[in-house]
Write a structure and sequence with these properties.
alpha/beta, Spore Coat Polysaccharide Biosynthesis Protein SpsA, Chain A, 9-stranded mixed sheet, 10 helices, globular, 279 residues, 41% helix
Length: 279
């Protein structure tokens, strides 16, 4: 009986499109192992994990095996460069993002592939998240579910003011990432900048169901340097707003309002970074 089950599983796997899960990491710890386990135990069987090691010394105990494809990256690279390198090494028709400290719900990949197979015009698909945190109240309280807009037009509108996706929940069509990569000049908010590049190149969607347990802690990159993260996010917003005006986009009004809202603080940042030389 066991042989027949194995054959049935192999046949099902061969019929399903390969999903490459890109997982960058700079630390080999229990959080990473939990994240890997959550992908290895997905209900969707045809998966490869591109584990991009961005640590100083390399992970001594992890090698390519089974579904895990281990790649060593340059430790001085920023996240954009690491992600682009990992995507180049991926073989899947779909590419899913995952962070090394989060946990994917067991049906995450299956539900995202099912949606993308039905909605052929959607190229970027995210989901809601449920918080894993030591906090008991507030926006990032443990167990709280946080949603993003679901429909394409709502996502486009939010993009002028805030990031409309939770990056580690996103699944892409690989064909998009072959044409539009992460901008290596963005040390932070590289995902936001990518959405801006894709603004009129594909359709967006989010699933309402939380498909990721998102860990909130003080050591996260975005929390360690919030000022830098906000600066790059503003830069992405300004580019989107200017593009909407230049192309006379249907959201041109939002573009004008966003420029008015963000320009003062954006140019203040520029002055801070390039102060006048004293005579």
């Amino acid at each position: 009986m066991g042989i027949h089950v194995t054959c049935d599983m192999d046949e099902r796997k061969s019929e399903l499109k390969l999903v490459s899960v890109v997982l960058p990491a700079h630390r080999n710890d229990n959080l990473l192992r939990n994240a890997l386990d959550s992908i290895l135990n997905q209900s969707y069987p045809n998966i490869e994990i591109i584990l991009a090691d961005n640590s100083e010394t390399g992970f001594k105990s992890i090698t390519s095996r089974g579904k895990i494809k281990y790649i060593r990256t340059n430790p001085v690279w920023n996240l954009s460069q690491v992600l682009n390198f990992a995507v180049v090494h991926s073989q899947g028709e779909y590419v899913a993002r995952m962070d090394s400290d989060d946990i994917a719900i067991s049906t995450r990949i299956e539900k995202q592939v099912e949606f993308l197979e039905k909605e052929k015009d959607v190229g970027v698909l995210g989901s809601s998240i449920q918080i894993l945190s030591s906090l008991t109240d507030g926006h990032w309280a443990n167990g709280k579910i946080i949603y993003q807009p679901l429909k394409h037009e709502e996502i486009q509108s939010k993009m002028f003011y805030k990031n409309p996706f939770f990056h580690p929940t996103v699944m892409f069509r690989k064909s998009l990432l072959e044409r539009y990569s992460y901008n290596p000049r963005y040390e932070r908010a590289q995902d936001y900048r990518l959405w801006v590049s894709l603004y009129n190149k594909t359709r967006f969607a989010n699933l309402e169901e939380p498909l990721l347990l998102y860990r909130f802690h003080k050591d996260q990159v975005g929390n360690v340097d919030q000022i830098l993260s906000r600066r790059f996010a503003k830069r992405a917003q300004m580019r989107l707003s200017l593009n909407s005006i230049i192309t006379n986009d249907s959201n041109i009004r939002l573009g004008l309002e966003s420029i008015k809202h963000h320009s003062a603080s954006y140019f203040h940042d520029l002055i801070d970074r390039h102060p006048k030389k004293s005579s």
